[in-house]
Amino acid sequence: MPQTFEYTFDTPVYKGKTSFSTGLYINGQWVDGSKGTTIDVINPTNGQLVTKISEGTKEDVDLAVVAAQKTFDTVWGLNTPGTRRAELLNNLGNLMQAHFDELAALEALDNGKTFGWAQDVDVTDSIATIKYYAGWADKIQGKTIETTAGKLVYTRHEPIGVVGQIIPWNFPLMMMAWKIGPALATGNCIILKPSEFTPLTAIRMSHLIQEAGFPPGVVNIIPGYGTTVGAAISEHPHIDKVAFTGSTLVGRKIMEAAARTNLKNVTLELGGKSPNIIFDDADIDQAVRFTSHGIFWNHGQACCAGSRIYVHAKVYDEFLTKFTDKAKSLKVGDPFGLDTYQGPQVSQIQFDRIMSYIDSGRQQGATLHLGGERHGSEGYFIKPTIFTDTKPDMRIVQEEIFGPVGVVIRFEDDDDVINQANDTMYGLAAAVFSKNIDRALQVAHKLKAGTAWVNCINQLHPQVPFGGFKQSGIGRELGEYALENYTAVKAVHVNFSLSVK
Q1: Any idea which fold 4-270+474-489 has?
Q2: Is 269 a catalytic residue?
Q3: Which numeric CATH code is attached to 275-461?
Q4: Catalytic residue among 102, 107, 235, 269
Q5: Where are the alpha helices (DSSP H) in 213-339?
């Protein structure tokens, strides 16, 4: 039998209890993995064990696929009208609202993000996303197409069937909502793998999914490692679609596995090295506030982080002074502490990776303007870090660090900064700050990125599509666009004539 995780939160910002099974969720039941092994869940604030969860395997993915396909063929998919799917999604959203603080606390405990941010962004936006797609569930429709007088032709947007979803550790709950919302609205069954670093909210959500009334087998949640569960989902011959959010390197492997096996449909939301351009006519105070949010929010662990900060020479000194003061003012510490802005990085692996990039910046000749050090003596805390005097070919300029490390780069010419901003294999997001809206929009339109923010940064909404150009991904999350990822279009020809001409 799987363990039961019980935890009492007694913090300055939240006091409460949680208790739930830590097993795999397959066909409506919580079970041990086929090998009976477990995964340690580590508290990033101190490196100590939080709990152990059941570890999934390839064999467990096989069991989940069989259950999901049976459910899809009998009581889900086209067997359940959109109005019922909408009702179940709204039930889930309401249950998430009822467990709002508990979900935020689990996210802070597991990931290290602050409880306040988890409340204001992660849980709030996750609920909004689920309810947004509840509204779409009874509006999946095709078209009638005119051809000839003796024929009726129409299209149906049918659910794909059993889909695989692999989510990352930086926004565990929100990425789960982004994935399951459109998949369930369109009538698919799901095999979902949360990150082994941050599985707790996904496991807790399995209990809410059951309570909401979804039939067994509609959603199956299998925590495990990428090399086992992730690979099994990517290669499975009876999973016809896989959606992944994570690194570009892993995205390539998933795409290769999908092509090598059954050529399954693939959507990928991958890495980024987003430019943030501050022109000389920008509101500098506004630009500083958003730039700080752009790179230090979620401890820099955001694929759309504005990590390349281009500042016009005329305002460079003023901006750098104010941006430095802002970074110094950010409180780093306990995610459940009062006024904490930045908690720890998610793991020792990620901590070491970020520190290696900081060392690389020093070694390649960049100026370490601020930070670059561990905060405290335990856990995975890194001080907000700013580099200056960089060169375009430096690793800290070209590669995704995924931590609280920004590079501030001086520029003078509009065309030159556009070329620099586009000089990357990534194309997820970009930001432009200018009081001249014509200038801002002209530049935004020339930036090769799936999202362009003007006088703001890191703004996400359930109804607005999100995804990348170039090696930042394929397909779009959120909005009406995401529904396309989970439906297959069928054209039906009805001939009214007895003879074929």
Answers
A1: Aldehyde Dehydrogenase; Chain A, domain 1 (3.40.605)
A2: yes
A3: 3.40.309.10
A4: 269
A5: 231-235, 248-260, 284-296, 316-329
